[in-house]
Design goal:
This protein has 9 helices and 2 strands; from the N terminus they run αααβααααβαα. The protein is mainly alpha-helical and about 280 residues long. The chain has one domain. The radius of gyration is 19 Å and the shape is globular.
């Protein structure tokens, strides 16, 4: 189970829930400014180069804020298991999307043809950055602090709903796509964070899902198309959007929702069992 924080601004006492929500809003705002540095107004090359640096700065700022504001060591960023858990997450995320795409192919709603993945290094780096950025905002800040303020189930539902709503601004988005993102990703990624108490596995799953979807299988990622991929795929003309995901991509499909929700249930159960075992010990 994750470390929620018991000291500093999160100390027990009067208005703890309100202090927690205020702290959440502050961390979310500061992290967003650092993660999305459009305010620097750099040219294209400079903007691409600064993004990973600013992502590191955002994580460093989060760690400092936790040490100062919550008066604790940020266990959720423990470095020793990072590589192993990140690797496991990458494998799981790739396998999950491969399963979803296999179902779509067997259902006859997706085409697949050879492509050309010429910018693989840039794609992988970009998707890894997205994974790190969104997991910092949605899991380390929003989910953790909502759980501190209102408990596990409310935190799962509210953070997943916010994650879905954040994708409504994407190309070809719809209410159905937002619900799908909330169910298959918002819930599932929070469960991976709960399982280890650290963010690394969730980052790996998140990044690998996007890499597999866009850069390997060549499908749209949350409504957005990539310029190069190992394969090229698209919904079969005339196929039902609920089954293929339509113009938003496979993430808006029922198979993706079912697979994501099943993984969520399995991982959440494992996390709760592990937490119960630790309490007994």
């Amino acid at each position: 189970m994750i470390t929620l924080g018991e000291a500093g601004v999160l100390s027990p006492g009067k208005w703890r829930w309100l202090r927690t929500l205020g702290w959440m809003v502050l961390l979310f705002a500061v992290s967003s400014v650092l993660l999305y540095p459009g305010w620097l107004r750099l040219p294209g090359i400079g903007r691409d180069a600064i993004r990973p640096v600013m992502t590191f700065v955002a994580y460093l700022a989060y760690a400092v804020a936790v040490r100062w504001g919550e008066r604790r060591y940020p266990d959720e960023l423990a470095p020793r298991p990072a590589l192993a858990e990140l690797a496991i997450g990458l494998a799981v995320g790739t396998g999950m999307f491969a399963l979803v795409f296999t179902i779509l192919r067997l259902a006859g709603v997706y085409t697949l043809a050879p492509g050309r993945w010429y910018d693989w290094a840039s794609d992988i780096a970009g998707m890894m950055r997205v994974g790190f950025a969104e997991e910092l905002l949605l899991r380390l800040v929003v989910f953790r602090l909502l759980m501190r303020a209102s408990g596990l189930w409310a935190a799962l539902g509210l953070s997943a709903a916010l994650f879905g709503l954040m994708h409504l601004g994407n190309p070809n988005a719809s209410p159905v796509a937002a619900v799908a993102i909330a169910v298959e990703a918002g819930l599932m990624l929070a469960a991976f964070y709960l399982l280890t108490g650290r963010i690394w596995m969730a980052v790996g799953v998140h990044a690998a899902w996007n890499i597999a979807q866009g850069s390997i299988f060549g499908a749209r990622v949350s409504g957005m198309a990539d310029s190069g991929s190992l394969f090229v795929s698209a919904p079969v003309a005339g196929s039902a959007d609920w089954l293929s995901g339509g113009a938003f991509g496979p993430e808006a499909s029922v198979p993706a929702m079912v697979v994501g929700f099943c993984i969520f249930v399995l991982v959440l159960r494992a996390a709760l069992l592990r937490s119960a075992a630790q309490v007994r010990v």
